[in-house]
Amino acid sequence: MPQMTLFELNNLIKSRLESTLAPSYWVVSEISELKLNQKGHCYMELVEKENNFIQAKMRANIWSYTYRSLSSKFTEATGTTLKPGIKVLFNVSINFHEVYGMSLTVNEIDPNYTIGERSKLREETIKRLHEEGLIERNKQLSLPAVPQNIAIISSKTAAGYEDFIDQLNTNPRGYHFNTTLFPALMQGNEAVMSIRKALKEIHEDDSHFDTIVLIRGGGAQADLDCFDTFELARAIALFPYPVISGIGHEKDQTVVDFVTHTSLKTPTAVAEFLISGMERFDDLLHEYMYRIEKVYEQKIAIENQRLLHLKHNVEHLAVQILKKQEHQLKEKSITFNYAVKRFLERQKSQLSTLEKEITLINPETIFKRGYSITLKNGKSVMNQKIKVGDLLETRTQNKRLESQVTAIDHE
Q: What does the DSSP 8-state code read for residue 135?
């Protein structure tokens, strides 16, 4: 039977969810619990009820840099704060964590659902955008974790543009952003055409921007009418770069805000969003570095324990091998000593035999038995030619005789 760890199972669930589900969904839900932590993150429990019976429940969160924008816009649009007991239309992404399980991340809130009324033109425009699948089009683009090459659509003289640049350049951690301004009119009858022209210039530019920022300062509600047009909203929705808006509206969201990748209230908020995103990525890198360090410290500790265990095993095995070798050497030494002893005994016996043989052929022994030896010129006469007149020497055990050949008798 195939087996897997719980971590592997959770990773499988996570990967299947990510490959199957859409990047985000619009969901209607009631807030049953809402808490803010010290860092400004909002944690909620969302429920769906029927006759006070909970049919569904899910954890949800709004990260601080998103919550600051969404809560302000919601309060201004509805006249009430986000709190338990109210129903809200959320745009959420579904998350699955190997440890913490399933949760939702709130990307956007549509206050229209809560207040229940919008102008007819805005409703028709938004409806048409939905029908053509344009509301989520730009949101589906990937926003780089660290957007640094930024195209700005704004008026060069707008206070909002100056606030945005100043906020970026004076960020507390000293992050650097490359910004390029594409000037455009931000209100009036020519604004839509001017902004669309700036979008075209950005598209034709070779700088490969990470994101587009559409910003302007505050103003009267009438000055924002251009941002409720279908033509501009469609152009932004279909744009190939993620667009971040900070139009400076005080009350309702504009239609453009619905189709941009990320909608914020002011140019300063856009700058804070970019900075906080970079801070979050920077902190995440430090967290990963910390985790990697801890993991490797743990691995090193485990390997040290394993090496210590191996050391003990090797030492024990070495002792056993040495004892075995020592025993074998003793056995071989005994065998060798025995073999040497036998060898020496055999050699001694052979020497004794040789000694006896030598003794038997020793001239002295032969002399004692009554034999003598005759020499000519100090050599045996056996192998010499003897003739009459030669002087010979005869040796016995205790005598030395000299003679002269007078006759030779050949037998």
A: T
Q: Tokens for 308, please give them.
A: 């210590």
384: which 2 tokens?
């010499």
Q: How many residues in the chain?
A: 411
DSSP letters spanning 349-404: HHHHHHHHHHHHH-HHHHHHTT--EEEETTEEGGGS---TT-EEEEE-SS-EEEEE
Q: Is 141 helix (H, G, I), strand (E, B) or coil?
A: coil
Kindly report, residue by residue over 168-185, the tens digit of the pLDDT.
999 988 999 999 999 999
Which two tokens mark 21? 């589900």
Q: Tokens for 31?
A: 């807030």
Query: What CA–CA distances, in Å, run from 213 to 85, 133, 251, 265, 270?
Result: 35, 22, 20, 12, 8
For helices 267-361 and 159-169, the axis angle rounded to 10 degrees is: 20
H/E stretch holding 243: strand 243-246
**Three-state DSSP class for residue 63:** coil
**Residue 164 token pair:** 């945005």
Specify the 3-state DSSP secondary structure of 293: helix
**How many CB atoms are located within 10 Å of the residue 329 CB?**
11
14-63 pLDDT per residue, tens = 888 877 888 889 998 889 999 999 889 999 999 988 877 888 999 999 99
Q: List Cβ neighbours of 405 (8 Å cut-off, separation of 6 or more).
A: 386, 387, 388, 389, 390, 391, 392
Q: What would the two tokens of residue 110 be?
A: 């549509």
Torsion of CA 122, 123, 126, 130, to 10 degrees: -170
Report residue 317 as tokens.
């095995």
Q: CA-CA distance, 285 to 283, in Å (whole number)?
A: 5
Rounded to whole angstroms, the Cα distance separating 329 from 236 reads 91
The DSSP letter of residue 180 is E
> What is the layout of strands, in order, in the sheet containing 373-376?
379-380, 373-376, 391-395, 400-404
Q: What is the pTM of this model?
A: 0.48
User: Among 165-179, 287-301, 325-339, 355-369, which stretch is predicted with the lowest mean pLDDT?
Assistant: 355-369
